[in-house]
Amino acid sequence: MRPSELALIAQTRADLASGRARDAREAAGVRQSEVAAAIGVTRPAVSQWESGKSAPDTAHALAYGKLLRDLARLAA
Length: 76
Prior knowledge:
single chain, mainly alpha, 434 Repressor (Amino-terminal Domain), 78% helix, globular
């Protein structure tokens, strides 16, 4: 795994823990179910990540981070 991917995973986990991931998703008008479908998990999994009840594994943290990054680029 590349250093940039490791950094994105760490940032995504920090964003989930702080609520920034949820805020970014909501600001983009994207539903949890849409995130789930895009990265191959269930909507309850995304809900648990965003509420801090669980954390995504490495692959899903990377996928969610890439999705958030793409949403931010579209909003800019």
